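B., you asked whether I could sanity-check this one before it goes into the benchmark set. Here's the sequence:
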Amino acid sequence: MEKIAILTRDCGGVNAAIRSIVRTAYKNDIKVTGVLKGYDGLINNKFIPLDRRSVSGIINQGGTILKTARSERFYNESEQKKAVQNIKKNNIDGLIVIGGNGSLTGAHVLSTKYNIPVVGIPATIDNDVNGVDLALGADTAANVALDALDKIRDTATSLERIFVVEVMGRDCGYIALQVALAGGCEEVLVPEKEFDIDKMCKEIKIGSSKGKESWIIIVAEGKAKGNDIANMITEKTNLETRVVVLGHIQRGGHPTSIDRILAARFGNYAVKMLNKSITDHCVSLKNGKLVTIPLEFAIKPKKIDVKAYYKLIKILT
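And here's what the prediction gave me:
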């Protein structure tokens, strides 16, 4: 293995992972190049050299220095072949893909269909990579959302209002569940669980009659729109409701210590695995130990024990 490339999505800890990959690679006399703007960069032949100095001072930065973009083009076989040609043209012996299900699916295609040596690093704020206890970026996203929630609670308590807080999570309720539990919220709505708006509103009315002054309800964007839930609550309870949509702040922010350490370990391990000719696998943390799992398994839908989370949230409310 003489030269490897890095392709990324964006979330907390990705830059720390890039740094770890580059410095581990150079320690093993392996050159590194970065792919600009994800799979589009592979197709468009957008590569930049990376060395120890180029990754200096990025460990605390959010996002990705390599930029990123969703690539619909990569679904097309002719575009995939362009990407493979560019990999070979640039004398790249192996690829490390940092990202979630979409990025890792692309990595699986490159490995199985075109015989490109690939190792994946799970990085997604939704923490929905199958077989991975904790993906890179999930802890940072939850903490960014929780920090905002703590400030919202100050206002909710002072003004005695109901707040509906919409967080990210198109297909997965991980962030919503984490924030609802850590933030002491009264209710959480997630894609994996049905909810009864009438029952929720009845609980709010009963609580209000007993002197409860404020509520915070977390809504994952994939389950419902915060504004729709707020309007229904106001309509059914006649209580004033406010909406906060946290949006893309959850994708940014300085990575937490957990994500920085995870990135260092994942990046170092990925280089070692690629150098041992292990391909079509994803780095994973299981019971505190680094392992690899097949990408074919990693990209399958992940099941979260929503029932257990929800039960605890309601007990503690």
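One thing to flag: The mean pLDDT is 94. Otherwise nothing jumped out at me.
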